[in-house]
Write a structure and sequence with these properties.
- The protein has 260 residues and is mainly beta.
- It has a single domain, classed as Immunoglobulin-like (Sandwich), CATH 2.60.40.
- The chain is built from two helices and 23 strands.
- It has a five-stranded mixed β-sheet, with no helix packed on it. Strands 2, 19, 22 and 23 form a four-stranded mixed β-sheet that branches. The protein has a four-stranded antiparallel β-sheet with strand order 18-7-20-21, with no helix packed on it.
- The longest helix has 15 residues.
- 31% of the residues are buried.
């Protein structure tokens, strides 16, 4: 084999195999399969959206005991009085479950939705991520902000998007991130302050909501059709239900979670 050919062979093999792929790790992720290619989708027409899906997410049984964590950072400990970080993993009030992501998983594959021009926000405030759970759209800018006069590190744990670990040492510091693949959900944590954790669901359509204290949700402006509705909770996983709605129709879909 000539010297020139010997040099070309490894190069051709490297190009054929590609440069490798991120082997990001994470939990509670979404395979994202079943979506139509962007070229075959129709631009979203809001005039088609006259249907509504509404419901409530409840918790059945005795609510698990909260697990607050002693805060070691003086600036933050003083804010909470008892020096303990609140446990936001399972929040139940009057039998209703908070921080559940409700979204349309299937049924909107043929529509192409614009990326929101507004930014979503994830703050580090008194050694706590705010909000604890949120949902954004694919391609939407997420502003990660530090409101504390102490250093945090932002450890992003993702399977389908980019896992990374970066520091924010100055009060007022902001870094922007964009996630291009659907994922339910990306975990954010701080390795400096181990009790800090948050979840960001990245979704491929705008029909989603995160439940508040009353456990209620409303997805309005849907076109008539059959949909797979998914409810995701960081501790209890996912539930799915299928519902069909007609023009100007409203259907109620309730979810019930329990501690296994």
């Amino acid at each position: 084999m000539s010297k020139q050919l010997a040099t070309l062979v490894p190069l051709m093999l490297a190009l054929a195999c590609g440069g490798g792929e991120d082997t990001n790790t994470g939990t509670n992720t979404d395979s994202g399969t079943g979506s139509s290619s962007s070229s075959s989708k129709t631009a979203w027409d809001a005039s088609k959206g006259t249907a509504t899906i509404t419901g409530t997410v409840s918790f059945v049984g005795e609510t698990p005991r909260a697990r607050p964590t002693k805060i070691t950072e003086a600036h933050c400990a003083a804010h909470y009085g008892d020096g303990q970080a609140p446990d936001e993993t399972i929040l139940v009030k009057n039998g209703k479950l908070q921080n559940v992501v409700i979204w349309i998983r299937k049924g909107l594959e043929n529509w192409k939705f614009e990326t929101p021009k507004t930014s979503a926000h994830l703050d580090q405030d008194y050694c706590r991520y705010v909000p604890h759970v949120q949902a954004i759209q694919v391609g939407q800018k997420l502003e990660v902000h530090n409101s504390d006069p102490v250093m945090h590190n932002v450890h992003v744990v993702s399977k389908r998007n980019k896992s990374e670990n970066f520091s924010q040492s100055t009060k007022g510091e902001t870094k922007n991130r964009v996630y291009k693949k659907r994922e339910v959900a990306i975990m954010f944590k701080c390795d400096v302050h181990g009790w800090m954790k948050a979840w960001v669901a990245v979704l491929d359509n705008p029909f989603f909501q995160v439940t508040g204290e009353d456990g209620k949700f409303t997805l309005a402006g849907l076109p008539a059709g059959t949909y797979e509705l998914e409810a995701w909770h960081e501790e209890f996983g996912t539930q799915k239900q299928t519902v069909t709605v007609g023009d100007k129709d409203t259907k109620t879909v309730d979810f019930k979670f329990q501690d296994n």
